[in-house]
Each structure stands twice: as C-alpha cells, then as structure tokens.
Structure to design on (303 residues):
C-alpha cells in the first residue's frame, strides 16, 4: 500500500499553546479521506503542516515521500484550499488563472478554462464581487488545475449554503473520478463527508482515535441492545466503546472484528455520524493509538 501522508509523534507548539501533540497517522493513496474532530483537535494545524505552510515543533511528517515544502517539485504535487477559500478580491477570475499558470509548472490551462466555463463564471468578473460559493469554486479550480497528486481541503464548505456546498462537492468528485487524485477533506459536516469520502480519520485532542476505510469501519461497529446487563458480561470479542442503561435495557456501542451472534440481543449497524460522535466522546476520556482505540475495562467504558 502506498502512503501519501505519514506522521510520527507529530507536534506543533505556539508559545505555551500546544496546537498538535503526538499525532501518528498513515494515509493511503487513492482515497478521499474525511478528517473529522471537534474544534481545537488540531485538524487545521495538521493540514498546514502537510502543506509545508508551517514546520513541526516535534516529530516527523512526510507527504508523497518527502518533507512538506522541501522544494518546488514537492510543492507542485500538493494542492491546498484553506478554510476561508482565499482569493484576491481586486483580481478578476482571469487574473487568478493567469497567476496560477505563472506559479505552477504543470498548470492545466484547458482544465482551468473548462471549469470556469462550466461554472458559468465571467472571466472578467472581479472575484470580490462573486458569491461565497463562486469564490470557493475559483479556489478549487486553482488547486486542481495545478494537477496535484494530493489535494488538501481545510473545511472549504463550512460557510456555504447547502446548495453551494453540494455544487462544490459535486465538482470535487467529478474531478477525482476523472483524475484519480488523492484527497484529504476536513469538515464538521458529516453528511457531506458521507457523500464523498471512502476513508475516515477521527482526530481528538491531537490523537487519532480511529482511521480506516469507511466500509470496513461501518462493517465492524454496531449498536447492541439487550436486557439490562453489565458491559463486562459481554463476550470477549466485543470491544465496548459506550454503554447506556435504563431500568430494564442496556445499549452498547461495540466494535467487533469477528461478529458474535446471540438471540438475547439485537445488533444494528451504525451510520457514519454515530460512528464519528462515538469516537469523539471516547477520545475526550481516553488516549488512543493510530488506528484502534485503547481497550479500557468494560466498567470504565460505561456512561
């Protein structure tokens, strides 16, 4: 498996504030990766480190086999759209495309022009007079037209209305389907990630709580409902992530690499949002490894 991003013990400190600490992660190529986590988890810091915009205080990070920002050739292979989809308000759409062509040796003018035409944008229009969704599309056009091997998007649709978000993500997926580019997309909007992502990374308190292909993760996590019982009475093959109880009933969120069936309980699959929220809650109370949460005694796992 080819790895496009590899972090080991990665950390970034600003004075007394630790923005990212002890982050270990491997991201496979050919995926559209959803990066999720609460505010302050270190998502933007991680992505800025991956782009070479900032340098780590501790640990190491490699992107596409080399240090981020290590040279023009490495920078040319990474496209980045920041959280505020930065553009130059006084420049026209055409000016942005000309700037992209001058700064990127592998610039695809045909692709850039076709995207602007499909979006119905006037090349002579100043970008500052465009809507938020249109500015986001211009930023995405600049990022993809440099023909990167890795496209990094830091919450690019957070401020957009639902229609603009859908159009942005549709344009992204059309590009990925045609060119096979690897993508890392950070977002709070799990419903958007559910539509486009096939790999998930959950980052909480700078640590990776879970990482893997979405189908594999959803296929190994379940909601188990049964008559009132303690978590430690469940079979050893079930890893209890969360437990809630009523007077007569217990509900557990469990991970099971090998499914255990019992007529005394009901197993229901989790959707992506349930999975993400479970690991966010779990990450606030327990450290985790790069791909699997630390096993805690069942009684401690009860909520």
């Amino acid at each position: 498996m080819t790895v496009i991003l590899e972090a080991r013990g990665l950390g970034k400190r600003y004075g007394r504030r630790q923005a990212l600490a002890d982050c270990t992660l491997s991201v496979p190529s050919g995926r559209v990766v959803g990066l999720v986590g609460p505010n302050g988890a270190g998502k933007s810091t991680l992505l800025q480190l991956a782009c070479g915009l900032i340098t780590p205080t501790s640990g190491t990070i490699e992107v596409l086999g080399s240090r981020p920002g290590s040279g023009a050739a490495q920078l040319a292979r990474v496209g980045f759209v920041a959280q505020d989809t930065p553009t130059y308000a006084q420049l026209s759409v055409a000016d942005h495309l000309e700037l992209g062509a001058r700064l990127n040796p592998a610039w695809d003018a045909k692709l850039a022009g076709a995207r602007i035409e499909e979006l119905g944008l006037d090349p002579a229009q100043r970008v500052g007079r465009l809507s938020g969704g249109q500015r986001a599309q211009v930023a995405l056009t600049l990022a993809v037209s440099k023909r990167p091997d890795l496209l990094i998007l830091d919450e690019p649709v957070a401020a957009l209305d639902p229609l603009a978000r859908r159009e942005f993500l549709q344009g992204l997926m059309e590009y990925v389907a045609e060119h096979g580019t690897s993508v890392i997309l950070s977002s709070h909007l799990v419903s958007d990630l559910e539509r486009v992502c096939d790999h998930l990374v959950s980052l909480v308190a700078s640590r990776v709580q879970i990482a893997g292909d979405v189908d594999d993760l959803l296929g190994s996590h379940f909601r188990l409902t049964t008559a009132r019982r303690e978590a430690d009475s469940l079979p050893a093959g079930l890893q209890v992530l969360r437990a809630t109880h009523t007077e007569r009933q217990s509900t557990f969120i469990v991970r099971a690499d090998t499914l255990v069936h019992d007529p005394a309980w009901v197993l229901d699959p989790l959707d992506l949002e349930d999975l993400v929220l479970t690991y966010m809650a779990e990450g606030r109370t327990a450290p985790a490894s790069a791909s699997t949460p630390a096993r805690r005694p069942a009684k401690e796992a009860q909520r």
